[in-house]
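Let's study today's protein:

:::
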Amino acid sequence: MSEQGHIKAKRPTRIPNAITRAMSWGYGIGIGHVNRKYDRGIGITKLDVPVISIGNLSAGGTGKTPMVHWIANELIKEGKRPAIAMRGYKANPGEMGDEEREHRLALVGMPVVAQPDRIAGLEKLFASEEQVDCVILDDGFQHRKIARDLDIVLIDATRPPCSDALLPRGFLRESIESIARADVVIITRIEQVDSDVISGLKEQIRLYAPSATICTVAFVWDSILSFAKTSHGWEDVDKPLSACVSESVRVVCGIGNTDAFVRMIRDHGMEPMEVFQLKDHEPIRSKYIDYLTNPANYDRFSPIFMTRKDWVKTKDNPAWPQLSRVWVPILSAEIGDGIEELQSRLKLV
């Protein structure tokens, strides 16, 4: 991280294009080989309960976590008892990663399996006293070892796959042709693009997945949770968005699509003075906190703005001094087109 801020990752790597083009070509060959194996049913395990996979084509930043929460709550409304199974990416052994912490915070009491061997983790869960009758695979589109009854793929409208490239030259884990496997394709962040972009994406999706349900989702900020560090720990106040307009903030972000997050901040009338971009899942280390909370670096003690994903992995760091202020947006997913059909598909699981 540079201490000068305003870092934007327009490309996933700084390796020259001539090299990444060849690397992406090789990556595509490897992905194709793996998918052909799974297409033949080789190496796939069928669980005893229905499985819903929520994933994406690109490497992070599509809004998957709020969609997992929305799907989980819809299943609960139908009387289901879901569990979440995830890889637990970047988590230290014996510790919860940022995404697991987010799930447990938002879905209190819901079982969460977080380990690379999801099948082994789920088998252990099924053998316990937990009452589980369905599973949500978090980031499961490429995790084809587990058969799924409903395959949901998210596409970020601010980063269309049709104009992107495979890793490492671009952000794609798979090409857009892979959505032929999807039952539901959800276009996210529609609030940040023009309607013609949405129309173009729908045409692309229908070309490769003509039978898939197409939904659109806007991520809406309901309010801002303001945390203040006191001698007794963190105290929080739920602030209306109108109370934050014209505020200058410093942004710390370790998610897959920082630019989209910064746009949302500006759209709500706040001005980012500096943007400190971390790698996806990277912790906010003590040296960063020391710099951000040093009054000598700023004319006034402006709030530090971050996602809930970043907040849950840094709030317990003892480096935060008293009087620190952190703002975290309270976000919800609003399903637009296709919500009735999506709800109907969930009822059949």
User: Anything to note?
Assistant: Residues 1-9 have pLDDT under 50 and may be disordered. Residues 255 and 280 are 4 Å apart (CA to CA).
